[in-house]
Design brief:
Length: 704
């Protein structure tokens, strides 16, 4: 279980804040509305005025027609929820019944683990409490999670065996709590109790809602308990984060609240609550939102978990919470599993690998990108609790590998060593995933998927998702779309990445990956294009030159490694922290150019954690006002260069962050900041250009 967090907000130096705003008329926008930036309390938003403090798609072939097929996004129109439709659907229960009856493995071993567990037996009596306390000397929350585990396990026994005695006792537990519980108290840990036990309680009730022996009035009372006791704490935490700075709380705090809200939305047929949870996962600003929980994606799709520098027990807890969220959303038709090219799987594989030993009995090594947040700096993978085993892996493995045919080598190893999954024991997870999530392997032959190509300097970095039947992978390259292809690498078996360093400047290449298995080569992956030269992606000229801000299309820079941004700027005045451009998804992740930082110079900056890990290129002075100025920024490999009127005024050779690290940028603005406290641009932007690739100094001078 998690430990109490610091409830106190961080004390910020007032010198880091800027004030004031400039009103302006709107430019004709190239895109649609500004979008939302997610919820945070008054103490939770660090403006770019604090930035210096930190600096000093899955291929879903072969899905059974009897299973829900997820959409890429949630619909905003009224929906009819699937029931039962949280962690388990009726199709899931039918699979369990058939497999157990046939004595099939691993389902039978999973069933035996359930029926031999003490909490799944008849004869127990509930111990409901009016007030549950988690955190402090008077904590009594174990009574709640033990009774939730009993209700869930009894419900499973009824659904698989058909024995109504277990259903009747599960109803006794649910009714006892819904007629008694009025509040959850404690220190900050009360939010953990409301989140973890909220989604678990909702799952037990969702299974039982179809039982004729549970009166409609009793179900309604239970739903009311979830809406009045659990949901308010879930919602409050995501909005206010207990009054603390938003990165004070690690990923699992957000994630348990999200899981509870999503589950309550389904159980209570409340689309607004369900959509609130889904929206926060994609656009929320806290550490548990999808882009933040998987803090950084390394080559080969190893996704560093937000708590990997903290300890491994909390990492595996996060996998369990996020996995439950993804599965519940999937069963309602929303593919959160596939969000941002299977970003959750990237995180799961990283955590799984971090906690496994290789053939020499040493822990596998994984890359690590320094994580900086309210809690400090984590510069290495934490060995605290390394090797931690938690019964959360069957759902991850079975979704990707057996539903979709995507290889999950390390999650598969974790699932295998814990099979059959049993009761989690400590209330952090429901367990028994071997029974509930196991599925037969996908029948269709696999092929690699999700291939991407990132140009960084004179190299092309390839990453892809493997397939479950592959023995190795072959990289192929062509000079034209569709081939003919030439093999440039073969026999790749571990991390699925390849750096092509044999490219020729000025050339354009096309890549594909094939899997090699016992039957030979698979069909090719998706084809990707990589140009080893700058290419103009966007050019925007203003219509009337008036002051204002413009909104550009979402996702504008999500595929860019090397890039160039160039524009002409006319400033009426150089307000500190105004923006020439700012591309991001709220203050959590952004790349921006300001005419004047608090150091008094023009600055380019990029950050993936609220400015804490900001990487910058500073010029020598602020952009001048009262005349047109040409400004440009380029990135080539790790070299970033800032130009003013065609002359290089600043460089940084350690720019490890690129636009691709920002994920889907939903707010791409000219003249406006991701931080609401920052002033609008007092001036005009014209001839704004975005290039794939870095222009040379001579090419920048030619633009001027």
């Amino acid at each position: 279980m998690d430990q109490p967090e610091n409830d106190n907000d961080i004390s910020l130096d007032r010198r880091l804040f800027c004030v004031g705003a400039v009103s302006f008329a709107a430019l004709g926008a190239a895109g649609c509305g500004d979008g939302g930036s997610g919820g945070f309390g008054s103490a939770g938003a660090l403006g770019s005025t604090q930035q210096n403090a930190a600096t000093s798609t899955a291929t879903s072939t072969g899905v059974s027609a009897t299973e829900p097929v997820a959409n890429s996004t949630s619909t905003s129109q009224a929906r009819k929820f699937t029931h039962p439709g949280l962690l388990h659907t009726e199709a899931d229960f039918e699979r369990m019944r058939l497999k157990v009856a046939a004595g099939a493995q691993p389902w039978l071993s999973g069933w035996n683990a359930l029926i031999s567990n003490g909490r799944s037996q008849l004869g127990a009596a509930p111990r409901p409490l009016a007030i549950v306390i988690r955190g402090g000397e008077d904590s009594n929350f174990a009574q709640m999670y033990i009774d939730i585990a009993r209700a869930y396990q009894l419900a499973l026994r009824w659904k698989v065996s058909g024995d109504a005695r277990y259903a009747d006792l599960a109803v006794v537990f649910l009714n006892a709590w819904s007629s008694t519980l009025t509040a959850i108290h404690g220190n900050a840990d009360r939010f953990l109790a409301a989140g973890i036990y909220g989604y678990q309680f909702a799952n037990a009730a969702e299974i039982m809602r179809s039982y004729a022996g549970w009166a409609a009035s009793d179900l309604a009372r239970f739903q009311n308990m979830m809406l009045t006791v659990f949901y308010p704490l879930n919602h409050s935490f995501l909005v206010n984060h207990n009054g603390a700075q938003i990165t004070n709380y690690w990923a699992n705090w957000d994630q348990c609240a999200l899981a509870s809200m999503l589950a309550i939305g389904v159980l209570c047929d409340r689309q607004d609550i369900y959509d609130e949870a889904l929206s926060y996962y994609k656009s929320g600003q806290g550490n548990g939102a999808g882009l933040q929980a998987v803090y950084h994606v390394h080559p080969g799709y190893l996704g560093q978990w937000q708590e990997s520098g903290r300890d491994q027990g909390h990492c595996t807890l996060g996998i369990g919470l996020a996995g439950a969220f993804c599965e519940m959303a999937w069963n309602q038709g929303d593919d959160v599993y596939g969000y941002e090219n299977n970003r959750f799987l990237a995180g799961a594989e990283y955590v799984a690998k971090s906690n496994l030993r290789d053939a020499t009995s040493a822990f596998y090594t994984v890359p690590f990108f320094t994580n900086i947040n309210r809690q400090g700096t984590q510069s290495v993978l934490s060995t605290g609790g390394q090797g931690h085993q938690r019964v959360v892996w069957e759902s991850v493995y079975n979704h990707y590998a057996n539903r979709l045919g995507i290889a999950t080598p390390y999650a598969a190893m974790q699932a295998a060593q814990l099979r059959p999954e049993r009761d989690g024991g400590n209330g952090d997870q429901l367990g028994f995933g071997t029974l509930t999530f196991s599925r037969d392997p996908i029948a269709t032959r696999g092929r690699p998927s999700g291939l991407t190509a990132r140009v960084r300097g004179p190299q092309v970095l390839l990453s892809w998702w493997g397939c479950t039947d592959a023995l190795s992978y072959t990289v192929k390259r062509a000079a034209s779309a569709g081939g003919p292809y030439t093999t440039i690498a073969a026999g790749i078996t571990d991390t699925l990445t390849f750096m092509d360093g044999t490219v020729i400047p000025g050339a354009v290449y096309y890549y594909a990956i094939v899997a090699v298995n016992a039957a030979g080569e698979s069909a090719a992956s998706n084809e990707v294009r990589a140009a080893i030269k700058p290419e103009l992606l966007l050019q925007k000229k203003t219509d009337d030159g008036a002051n204002g801000h413009a909104t550009l299309a979402a996702g504008l820079v999500k595929d860019l490694g090397d890039f160039t941004i160039a524009a002409k700027v006319y400033l009426d005045g150089a307000a500190t922290w105004s923006r020439v451009f700012d591309f991001g998804s709220g203050p959590r992740r952004y790349m921006m150019l300001t005419p004047r930082s608090n150091a008094g110079t023009v600055r380019y900056a990029i950050s993936t954690v609220h400015g804490y890990n900001e990487q910058v290129i500073d010029g020598s002075a602020a952009l001048p006002a009262g005349r047109w100025v040409h400004v440009a920024v380029t990135l080539s490999g790790h070299l970033g260069t800032l130009y003013v009127d065609g002359l290089a005024v600043g460089t940084n050779t350690q720019m490890t962050l690129a636009p691709v690290d920002l994920g889907e940028t939903t707010q791409n603005w000219l003249g406006r900041s991701q931080f609401t406290a920052d002033p609008a641009l007092a001036g005009r932007v014209d001839d704004f250009r975005l290039y794939h690739g870095a222009l040379s100094a001579a090419e920048i001078a030619a633009l001027v």
